[in-house]
Amino acid sequence: MPSLTYAVIAVALLGAACNRSRATSDDPYKVHLIPTSGAPLLPPPSAANSKLPPATYTVAQAARGKTVYESTCAHCHPAGQQSGASFATAWDQRPVFDLYSIVRNTMPQDKPGSLSDRQYIDVVAYMLQMNAMPASTVALRTDSAALKQMKISVGAAQ
Ligand code: HEC
Fold it and tell me: The whole model's pTM is what?
């Protein structure tokens, strides 16, 4: 699809996001991803992202993240909502920073920012594992610059 088409879609999606009653002035992103609608409300991922290497995380991180997810996230996010096709539609080929920053700054929705940085990065690692990204010996780190240089690549062992 030509980039102009992407721009038009992005503007349309952002417009839709602004009309949602849930959009609030303290939203650092000025956009909301609304999974229940089935459509991601972020602009489509940039084609430049495809050059980024897939994000890495360790098995130990994902195991810690699973504990966090089950105790802190799962009661609002039913099984399957953060994995499979709906997750792929929203997140595949985006820098992992996009996911980390949304989770870090807006979740858990009833108490944003209430977890430690380590818990946040661990829970993101678990979300990568849930979406069939392979574990590695290289941990995912809470380093914004590094997180912008690796992408979510759902189900990819590349
Ligand atoms: C109190 C309920 C609640 C809790 C707890 C909660 N969430 Fe959410 N989450 C939501 C709602 C509601 C949305 C949709 C936000 C919107 O539309 O503005 C959302 C959106 C999201 C999104 C972006 C949309 C998507 O699904 O791709 C992610 C990612 C996410 N949550 C992850 C988490 C993680 C990880 C945790 C645990 C640390 C968590 N949430 C805890 C209610 C919750």
Answer: 0.79
